[in-house]
Amino acid sequence: IGPSLGQDSVTKSVRAGIIGLVVVLLFMLVHYRLPGLLSDFSLVIYALITLALYKLIPVKLTLPGIAGFLLSVGMAVDANVLIFARMRDEVGAGKTVGAATSAGFKKAFRAVFDCNMTTIITAIILFWAASGGIKGFALTLGVGVALSMFTAVLVTRSMLTLLSGWKPFRIAICRTTDRAA
Prior knowledge:
Structural class: mainly alpha
Strand content: under 5%
Distance between the termini: 54 Å
Order of helices and strands: HHHHHH
Helix content: over 70%
Number of helices: 6
């Protein structure tokens, strides 16, 4: 297998990853509306921080490394979906948007934390026990998942908390809840 075949695979994987990311961003925007836009913003911040950290470490993004990064992006989206689903349940139960935001994060945090810690432990074991491309996968996955938890808890929560007092945001949350019922 020549290096051009490897480079072709990396190029196709990056292209597929970008297309997948755009589809996910659009889904979050359409399904969750304004909170989805906040999630999209948080996800872009997450991706930029992660790629900057990869540059600082430095991480060479091979095919397994790209796979680890894309899997961590999926986990970042999953954290936001869990948080928004809990918020929607709380608003549906009659809580104010501010109270629903706080309760939604509290209720979703345990699931997000457990899932992410399990993945980080697995990434550490893979990095320690494996070699070559698997180490790259483990490194990008572990770093990405740790940062996804950071952005879900800090960036998304901060934005939602700040906006929970804004009337258009409260209306958007309530409409999202009504549509889900």
